[in-house]
Specification:
Largest sheet: 4 strands, antiparallel
Shape: elongated
Strand content: 5-15%
Oligomer: single chain
CATH class of the largest domain: Mainly Alpha
Strand order of the largest sheet: 1-2-4-3
Order of helices and strands: HHHHHHHHHHHHEEEEHHEEHEHE
Number of domains: 4
CATH topology of the largest domain: MutS, DNA mismatch repair protein, Chain A, domain 3
Number of strands: 8
């Protein structure tokens, strides 16, 4: 340990020694309120338990004032994910590098998702294809269903386009940074999700794909509809968030504030008649509050009870006791309105946060639905075919194409290629001059294999593809 410390110190890296570490298993059980870690598939995985506990402890340290949005630990078995190292990902142009556009990548070809949630999940999926044949075939079943039901697919994609980024809204609610606009976006998203649920209920074969917490989501929608104003601002401290009629105390305060304009006009008219100054005006600014403004020409008509507040080039500004008292009432009412609105808004947010799992689950279901409908859309657009997955070593692709290259050249110009490998013939020696297409041929095979493993149709006329654990 001392050697490691010396190396870390010499490298200029800061580190903290962990002292008095609680028993890691008990720490996780206490945080998630469990009696066993078996439900997380962690019961006998000591290294995973240690890693999870220390990571959780660090996050809690960094987020002292916030509740953490973690409902469970998901154990990812790398034996169930295709191994694609960074060099492979870059050479195959799977996703764009940070800051670059996705055109010219597999993600750029496949990502026509209707939601940002779907696009983010698709990016992860392309870099981590499945190895579980049952999961892949289940996804292919959904894609196939949407492929063959065009009207359903397009209606579904239209509804998905109106769904906002529920994942990010959920995170903002958890960390207390949400505003009225976020809750309105959430309401619209839930309404569209409920419409999707109703649409899929008519299709018994696939309705399980969108099994959501209807009761809780409907309650969230109705509460937001009842409480949050359609014109809610981005700020949460300046009022204007809560609807009229929701809270009696708030309505009373607003009535006082709104009647203020009429009352000010009444004072102004009375002072004009009292002084004979026709040009007398009552104005307001943040520095002096309410004041009476009189031009220099009428200064001789100003009564003795007027208190001079400011002298300008062309006019004088005054206050009177009645105006000052009224100003205090208005300011007090405004402060109370802002405070009460914030309190009511946060109460609603807290109620949603208490059952946030319904929203995180909804986001996952939307991502899956969006990706599968998107794959069907792309398959139709690019003339892809459904792959046949096999657990033996047979690989056969007839009329294969490079999915990225073919969309960058005129339609129909791409020269199709075939490949057939099995346990007896599992090696090809590929020769040819420079720029003859050797790399493109190899890459198109790899890309079609990856596409099949993420549950997508492939760029070929026919494809029989085995489960491949590494490229």
């Amino acid at each position: 340990m001392s050697l490691l410390e010396n190396r870390v110190t010499l490298a200029g890296i800061k580190y903290n020694k962990v002292k008095k570490v609680r028993k890691v298993k008990e720490y996780l059980l206490d945080f998630f309120g469990l009696l066993s870690l078996e439900s997380f598939d962690l019961e006998d995985r000591e290294n995973s338990i240690r890693a999870a506990a220390h990571l959780l402890s660090y996050i809690k340290l960094m987020q002292k004032e916030n509740d953490l949005p973690f409902e469970k630990i998901e154990y990812k078995n790398i034996n169930k994910i295709m191994e694609l190292n960074v060099n492979t990902q870059n050479n195959l142009d799977l996703v764009a590098k940070r800051g670059e556009e996705s055109k010219g990548t597999l993600l750029g070809v496949l990502d026509k998702c209707s939601t940002s949630i779907g696009s983010r999940e698709l990016r992860k999926l392309i870099k981590n294809p499945f190895l579980d044949k049952k999961i892949i075939e289940k996804r292919l079943f959904y894609v196939d269903y949407f492929y063959n039901n065009v009207l359903l697919r397009e209606e579904l994609r239209t509804l998905l386009k109106d769904i906002y980024d529920i994942e990010r809204i959920t995170t903002k609610i958890i960390y207390g940074t949400e505003n009225g606009k976020d809750l309105l976006s959430l309401k619209i998203s839930i309404r569209k999700a409920l419409e999707i649920y109703k649409l899929l209920e008519e299709h018994e074969e696939i309705r399980k794909i969108f099994k959501i917490d209807l009761e809780t989501l409907l309650e969230f929608h109705n509460k937001i509809e009842e409480i949050i104003s359609e014109d809610a601002p981005f700020t949460v401290r300046e009022g204007g968030i809560i609807k009229d009629g929701y809270n009696a105390n708030l309505d009373e305060l607003r009535k006082l504030s709104r009647m203020g304009k009429d009352y000010i006009l009444e004072i102004e008219q009375r002072e004009k008649e009292k002084t004979g100054i026709k040009g007398l005006k009552i104005k307001f600014n943040k520095v002096f509050g309410y004041f009476i403004e009189v031009t220099k020409a009428n200064q001789h008509l100003v009564p003795e009870d007027y208190i001079r507040k400011q002298t300008l080039v062309n006019c004088e500004r005054y206050i009177v006791q009645e105006l000052k008292e009224y100003e205090e009432k208005i300011i007090t009412a405004k402060t109370k309105i802002e405070s009460l609105e914030y309190e009511l808004f946060k109460k609603l947010s807290f109620e949603i946060k208490e059952r946030i799992y319904s929203l995180t689950d909804l986001a996952k279901k939307i991502a899956l639905l969006d990706i599968t409908a998107n794959f069907a859309h792309i398959a139709t657009k690019n003339s892809y075919t459904k792959p046949i997955l096999t657990e033996d070593e047979d690989l056969e692709i007839i009329g294969g194409r490079h999915p990225i290259v073919e969309v960058l050249i005129p339609r129909g110009d791409y020269v199709k290629n075939n490949i057939k490998l099995d346990k007896d013939n599992n090696l090809i020696i590929l020769t040819g001059p420079n720029m003859s297409g050797k790399s493109t041929y190899m890459k198109q095979i790899a890309l079609n294999i990856i596409m099949a493993h993420i549950g997508s149709y492939v760029s070929a006329d026919k494809a029989i593809i085995p489960i491949v654990d590494k490229i």
